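Dear Dr. L.,

I hope this message finds you well. Following up on our conversation about the binding site, I have prepared a predicted three-dimensional model of the protein together with zinc ion. For your records, I am including the exact sequence and ligand specification that went into the calculation, followed by the structure tokens. Please feel free to forward this to your student if that is useful.
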Amino acid sequence: MITHHPAKDVLFAYAAGTTQEAVSLVVATHLALCPDCRCSVSLAERAGGAMLENFAPEPMTTAAWERVQSRLDDLRPIHSAVPVPGRETGAPEPLRTYLDGDLDSVRWISVTRGLAYRPILVGDCRVQLVRTKPGHRISLHTHGGDEFSLVLTGGFTDCSGQYRRGDFQTATRELLHRPMADKGEDCIILTVADAPLMFRNPFVGLMAKLMGF
Ligand SMILES: [Zn+2]
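The resulting structure of the complex is given below.
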């Protein structure tokens, strides 16, 4: 049962095709697990399509069409607006394509005994998988910007609630937290952040920076 979802404005931006690749990836992977949000995106797409039908046609020059085509050639592949629902475990599409396999084939980089990560995309936003062992706490931190996290296996709990497979957390500069992985299996999350974590303990912050986390 998924109880934490992306904000409506994020879902609408995704439906309109205006989110950048990193955000599209985490939203589309959530959609693969969440029927409620798939329904919201589908409604937003139909509303957008109905609005387009009401625009009066405008004449275009041949050069305008050629410019559009050349820009399309520069674009990276776009995610399907409504991805194929995922399996009960592991990485659903479109994340699976980015991993070139499933979660059990990920080559992790260890930060501490209980914490490891794997970069997925590096650009304006940083996209990575983060794995925490059951019962392990990530040191107290806040965020330099916005961070989206999607739980893929296990779960974690912080001051804002409990998050399990499919749950989506939006963390901002205002959220100061110390997430702890739930007991049971490893907690693996997909995170997208436009700024690094800001640890309260300067030593932890330095170590995280040195480890590339
Ligand atoms: Zn949802």
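In brief: Residues 2, 5, 30, 34, 36-37 surround zinc ion (CB under 6 Å).

With kind regards,
A. P.
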